[in-house]
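On clarity, I found the account of how folds are encoded harder to follow than it need be. An entry of this sort, consisting of the sequence and the corresponding backbone structure tokens, reads as follows:
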Amino acid sequence: MQTSATQTIRVTPDSRLAAIRETRPEDYVSIAALHRRNGLTIRPFQQWLALWSGNPAYEARGDGNWPLGWVLETERGEIVGSIGNLPLDYEFRGRKLSAATAYGWVVDEAYRSYSVMVLNRFMRQPGIDLFVFTTVGDKAEPIYSSGFQLSRAPVGCWDRSIFWITNYRGFAKSALNHRKVSFGGALCYPAAAGIYAWDQLQARVPSSDPAYEIQLCRQFDDRFEEYWQEIRRKQRHLLPVRSRETLEWHFQHAFSPTTILAILKESRFVGYAIFGRQDNTALGLKRVRIVDFQALEGHAPGFVSALTWMIARCRAEGIHVLEMMGDWLVRPDLPKIAAPHQRTLSSWMYYYKASDPQLAEALRDPGAWAPSSFDGDASL
């Protein structure tokens, strides 16, 4: 895999000379070191490379015609900044859109004055209809919102997480660990009992719809491709491509494990839901996240059945919480479901920018959106 050459940009703030150039696969070791010393994680090399290799959106653009990203390099050859450039395909009202999402934007503290330049290099690439950012942190948010005047996704509460507790003792122990409470082990039993009592009073566990059958899938089979071809003809929302090939690529390294549920009505495939395991090992929190849900028109209630199935599965396996980041359940096409718990996130995670003025105007309408954690790099 090779990337084409681009013009090097040189500036000298604070008497530090650095250059921005395109990322090469052999830069991985230095990029990984950059992430680690800034407290960030990064995939192993083969999984990192698979963000492009095998990515249908990348392959369609031709090997070598899409930059893997850009690095900030000193005169001594040290990589002190990096931003990944992931290609994505979207569709909107019959129109195919070329999209890009930033991945792993990080700059060493001594070179933070270059941060905006690194992001600007990403934003200046030609031929992009839509820039999507779904993992915006609190330190970067002012740059996205004010510096580049990006727009917030108008559907979903992307500064909020909602969740169901499915193992009260385990959750209480993790919460006490987070707060570094002395004698937390002894306190976890009464804490768990109190949270359980609160949940019983709230009575917010949804009831499944008996009209829908939930089927656990081991892989994305032909039904997922048939479903995508049907929904793309009828859907009026902005949608990332969800072909079978794209789903297989997206989830090959995303979570371990990934739970895929087919939603059936009278034996007909009418939708699906995807969940991913994403523990917080530092707190000892066992967690499953709700990643995606899609359904044919009129079959959104099938999500309730998939949700109750997953809540029961989490309880049986000792998972502590089932969580949704961004609370995209507030989508108008979904049934109203009130989760018993929520927490406020440090930033609004979902920003976007449309290059075409007509597309930008159309996306100001909340009715044009049906977002989920499948968008951008949120579940990558």
About this structure: DSSP finds eleven helices and 16 strands in the chain. The longest strand covers residues 79-92. The domain at 160-348 is CATH 3.40.630.30 (Aminopeptidase). Residues 2-15 have pLDDT under 50 and may be disordered.
